Each structure stands twice: as C-alpha cells, then as structure tokens.
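Hi V.,

Quick status before I head out on leave. The structure for the redesign project is tokenized and pasted below; the design run finished overnight.
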C-alpha cells in the first residue's frame, strides 16, 4: 500500500480497535457492577452506548475500506478488512436486532432470568473475531 493509504488505514483501524476494546470489553461489563445500576438502567445505557459505538464503527469502516481500496492492497490487508467489515455487518444486521428485542422485553418487565438469550454470547464471540481482524489489519496496513 502507498504510505498515505497505509497511514489512514492504520489510524482508522487502531481507532476502531480501541473503541471496541474500551466499550465492549471494559465499559459494558463494568456498568452492571456499579452501585445502584439495575438491569433495566444498564440496558438503557448500553443501548445508547452501543448505538453510538456502532455508528462510529460504520464511519470508521467506510474510512478504512476507502483507504484500503485506494492503496493497492495485498491479500494480507484485504482479508482482515473483509473479515472486520463482515463481522460488523453481521452484528448490525443479525445479532443487534435480536439483542434489541430481548432488551425491549426486559425493559417491558420480563424477568431477565426467565428466557436466557444466546444473542449476547454471539455478539461477544463476534467482537473477539473483530478484535483479532482489526489488530491483524492494523499491523498489516502499517507493515
């Protein structure tokens, strides 16, 4: 990749990675441990935070795709780009709607322990795949 495209791709990728790590693996689990935060309050906060994160991720994905596309990338850059973007699209199009339906039910008064959902586990597994892809992409873009 040319140096400008590589720099933009690397910066966008590592910013995206940092946001995912900070929100998904730090803020999300910690908010439910804060004193006075009930499950409905935590879900309300989480929905807003993840809506903002996902919007920022979509913008960064466009920036990274544009930088990669204009930089004559190798397969070592294209592959993790495709993986990260595909994971984001699956999260937004498949998993997030399920999580939203589940949180709607809990916010409407359903006992969260009654009907456990695996959607959260899928989201976390996809976040792990995305983190690996973003790290790989950032390193490959700047190599």
């Amino acid at each position: 990749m040319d140096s400008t495209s590589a720099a933009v791709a690397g910066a966008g990728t590592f910013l995206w990675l940092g946001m995912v790590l900070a929100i998904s693996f730090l803020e999300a689990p910690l908010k439910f441990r804060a004193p006075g935060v009930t499950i409905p309050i935590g879900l309300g906060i989480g929905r807003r935070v993840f809506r903002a994160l996902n919007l920022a991720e979509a913008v960064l994905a466009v920036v990274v795709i544009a930088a990669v596309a204009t930089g004559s990338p190798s397969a070592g850059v294209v592959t993790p780009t495709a993986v990260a973007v595909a994971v984001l699209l699956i999260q937004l199009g498949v998993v997030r709607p399920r999580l939203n339906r589940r949180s709607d039910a809990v916010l409407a008064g359903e006992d969260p322990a009654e009907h456990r959902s695996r959607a959260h586990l899928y989201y976390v597994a996809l976040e792990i795949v995305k983190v690996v892809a973003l790290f790989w992409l950032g390193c490959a873009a700047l190599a």
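Above is the designed sequence. The two ends are 9 Å apart (CA to CA).

G. will cover questions while I'm gone.

Best,
W.
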